[in-house]
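Q: what does this look like with 0PR bound?
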Amino acid sequence: MQPLCRDHPQPQSFDRVLSSMCTRPHPDAVAAATEFLTTNPGDPMTYQSIAKIESKAVNLLADIVGEPTATGYITSGGTESNIQAVHAARNRSATKTPNIVAPESLHFSFNKAATVLNVELRTVPTDEDHRADLTAVENAVDEDTVLVVGVAGSTAYGRVDPIPELTDIAHRVDAVMHVDAAWGGFVLPFTDHAWSFAAGIDSLTIDPHKFGQATIPAGGLLVRDPSLLDELAIETPYLESPTQATLTGTRSGAGVAGALAAMEALWPHGYKETYERTMYLAERLETELSTRGFETVTPHLPLVAADIPRELFTALRSEGWRIATTADGTLRIVCMPHVTQSLCESFLSDLDRLRRA
Ligand code: 0PR
């Protein structure tokens, strides 16, 4: 049988992709996703096997973050996880004028959460190393603060906020401490930032469809105390299961099955190897770019930022390099698992040629 989309462009190849936080999925994830394409974890009493797979996937995510008793669900991605974290925190509080406090390095999904949930978003400056400024956070929280955000692997610079200190600040005003580790979650266990939920984090975003090498869509929302998830429960009169905590109704069984398969194949050794290889590449790229005289931001996780002239950026893009910039125009290269040494070398050689042109 001919594929239905035979007249359309080929699906994405990862050649020359240095901008994405997604990557080529593990083959086991592709096989599992294909097998479970027609299942709906949103109706767990009807689709019982995918419901069991989801609970295994959540348990494995809980192991990865070092809090085996954490609970949660597989979301459609970091955006849904962050929205639901804000949602749960808002519902948990009695205040009529809720606010959330986050460093300006936050992902824009929190702006969506604030708009949809009618919560005030207070963003505070980061320090000179692009991490949350603790004094600024301290000054921004008050008795109406329902949630404090810490980013663990920021979208622009791959920075990790001081999570234990932010947690103290959050708990002093009885707010939920939420960590956005959507991108960083699968590499943090192998770094000095291997703090766990034991540090008091209440909720966490960790996305299998980014560094977890799962198929899209697969995000993760975890909570330390199940009562926080109960804040999201909506009665479901037409389903056999009584309540639902998810934002969407019908969900992708493919995403859930792909997430479990990827994590079973790669946790912990495969993820550790991937982290070591991509971190090495990020450090090499940074050295190479700074040797050429570009101002760089030292990578803490596998992400390099460098100030290159706009014309050079445009020339590289027109040669097919998929590269992106931060909000202030800095080149940002994400060393995802599909990024290899030869890809980096070929990027640098194109950059050298275009720079001299
Ligand atoms: N939190 C953080 C820290 C993120 O970096 C992202 C996505 C999210 C939450 C939201 O996750 P979802 O996109 O899964 O809802 N950051 C990337 C970005 O906005 C997303 C991305 C991924 C962009 C792949 C491009 C791409 O090809 O830049």
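The longest helix spans residues 269-291. The CA atoms of residues 143 and 173 lie 6 Å apart.
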